[in-house]
Amino acid sequence: MRTRRLLHLDLVRSEKAGVHLTTFVVSAVSTILVTRAYLALTGYPQIGGDSGLHIAHVLPGGLLMAAGLVIGFAYIGRGPRPVAALLGGVGFGLFIDEVGKFVTADNDYFFEPAAAIMYIIFVCLVVGANVWRRRRPLTDEEKVANAAHVLVDGLAGRLPANRRREVLRTLESLGDARGARQLHDLLTTLEPRTSPLPQRLELLWHRIAEAFTRLAASRFAAAVVGALLVLQAVGAVLVVVVLWRANGSSAPVMAGTATGTVISLALAAMAWWRWRIGDRRGAVEWLQRSALASLLITQVFQFAASQFAAVVGLFVDLLLLGVVGGGLRAHDTGRASGDQVRSP
């Protein structure tokens, strides 16, 4: 008990952590792709030329990550966080892009497993954060604390109208939770303003999530999920077979890809069975496990065989996870309102 008290940090979780994490990951991955494309098109130039100096892009990456941290330290409210997530993501992308140099004795930027290493890092970051968040929803106290954080923007005259409406609905749903009514009264007296640029990043991810939720609640949801699952499974097998016939892919790559595909299809079959017995939410959860199996197993081995094919597979998996996540949100919203909601 004494050790637990020493390690207890009393950290309040942010309800926007998923949004900021998405900004961080997307900006990091985009930076890696843009950087590699630019270097390939320009013949891999070196900053410093023939002067004997070589300024690796890991250095500006570190500076951008530091800038993101400084913004988080120097400013209060929610406004700086999207900017910090964006700068930190770009900086981390520049940093992790040179992972091949860090793990090889000859500083090999073109180390083939580097793409798989980067991929595993991003997948573990996203999946770990989602699992951590799903294990325990935000408490009422944490929701009130998040609303108080929004109040900072309102007092500074930087609170957009849509964000104020969202927070007011949250506070009304908390009833007599300590501080909820007082915060509600304060927020209603504040004049909303046009969304500043940083908070438009949050709005963008909200609209994407809402689009997935609408798709999951539509009559096309089952067809979309089925098509994505079939495309993913068949595509993974075909890519490995073609590469094996062309240049002889290794047996571990083929075995890993086949194993991930079989597991993913088995989990999808379990989802179909849960759907047949009437467990709609259970079916969606099993579909989510199927997509994660493809993401964590199949695509890792795909990266070792063909980075391009793995990027396509990653895109399909992310679409599938988006539709399935929208299905979970649609189902939970339907239960809360007492309506029947169609899920994939």
From TrEMBL:
<keyword id="KW-0472">Membrane</keyword>
<feature type="transmembrane region" description="Helical">
    <location>
        <begin position="310"/>
        <end position="328"/>
    </location>
</feature>
<keyword id="KW-1133">Transmembrane helix</keyword>
<feature type="transmembrane region" description="Helical">
    <location>
        <begin position="83"/>
        <end position="103"/>
    </location>
</feature>
<feature type="transmembrane region" description="Helical">
    <location>
        <begin position="220"/>
        <end position="244"/>
    </location>
</feature>
<feature type="transmembrane region" description="Helical">
    <location>
        <begin position="250"/>
        <end position="274"/>
    </location>
</feature>
<protein>
    <submittedName>
        <fullName>Uncharacterized protein</fullName>
    </submittedName>
</protein>
<feature type="transmembrane region" description="Helical">
    <location>
        <begin position="109"/>
        <end position="132"/>
    </location>
</feature>
<feature type="transmembrane region" description="Helical">
    <location>
        <begin position="21"/>
        <end position="41"/>
    </location>
</feature>
<feature type="transmembrane region" description="Helical">
    <location>
        <begin position="53"/>
        <end position="76"/>
    </location>
</feature>
<keyword id="KW-0812">Transmembrane</keyword>
